[in-house]
Design brief:
Elements: E1 5-11, H1 18-28, H2 37-43, H3 49-59, H4 66-82, E2 85-92, H5 94-98, H6 104-115, H7 118-122, E3 125-133, H8 138-148, E4 157-161, H9 173-181, E5 185-190, H10 196-204, E6 210-213, H11 221-229, E7 233-236, H12 238-243, H13 255-260, E8 264-267, H14 272-275, H15 279-290, H16 294-306, H17 312-318
Parallel strand pairs: 1-2, 2-3, 3-4, 4-5, 5-6, 6-7, 7-8
Bound molecules: 6-chloro-9H-purine and zinc ion.
Residues 9, 11, 161, 189, 212, 270 line the site of zinc ion.
Length: 319
Amino acid sequence: MSIPKAELHLHIEGTLEPELAFALAARNGVTLPYADTEELREAYRFDDLQTFLNLYYELMAVLRTEADFADLADAYLTRAAAQGVRHAEIFFDPQAHIARGVPMGTVVEGLWRTLGRSEETHGVSTRLIMCFLRDESAESAMDTLEAAKPHLDRITGIGLDSAEVGHPPAKFRAVYEAAAELGLRRVAHAGEEGPPAYITEALDVLGVERVDHGLRCMEDPELVERLVRERVPLTLCPLSNVRLRAVDVLAEHPLPAMMDAGLLCTVNSDDPAYFGGYAGDNFDAVREALGLGEERLRELARNSFEASFLEHDEERRAR
Ligand code: ES4
Ligand code: ZN
């Protein structure tokens, strides 16, 4: 579906298609434990968030140079633009790269080679959101924020991702406070596999302006009421929810009920190379499986710009 839209929940490392993974492996002399792209695609089958994350981190081994990150972002923007994405707020996971000996500067400046001119080359405006891995320590997150300081002109905000259960938002209170003082925008994954209380905590303790996933808010009517009242955007990822078994089948996805409840919902792709599709594919999938009409799809597209970090004049131009 090519209706103009903003993509607000997209992990750049999750856009690594098997073909590019093998091309980068060859360029960098990295050996992948898969015979070919077919066999790798077979491995793109998961039971839950953790089994997905294991493969996601394993494949990052092919990303080594600025050119690799620039090529990764370029491949994503080409696919996104073809599906109507006019603006993309892109997550990256620096700790996963720093742990492999790839410095912050290589990641950020590599991505920026592409993102810094994406409006001219792809007709897509972009923002970068640096995520902390919640299954790493709070000290590691603080070190990561420190390492990002020379690059803050490239980074709009911070996020929180990776294994959710057992790693509540409050663990990252200090780093979110420090980031706010630096003028960074704040989002966090919450209520994907974790309980509704994590959503409340992300709002109250971390001061997030937008909740990534937030699916499980539906278990708590008072929380839903609050999210509606405060107009907190949720970045839903329907195909991801099916692949990671947050919902059994797409036809049972709560998106229509969430929209009926008055929640500010957006539809996004999360890790499109792994979960079966980019932003437009997610729009197509919910239209078909959930019977969403034209008006509802337009509402989702409108919401995506409203929920973005674009300034009003930029928002008008992107739509
Ligand atoms: C992620 Cl689907 C999802 N959830 C949490 N962390 C992630 N990192 C990349 N994709
Ligand atoms: Zn995500």
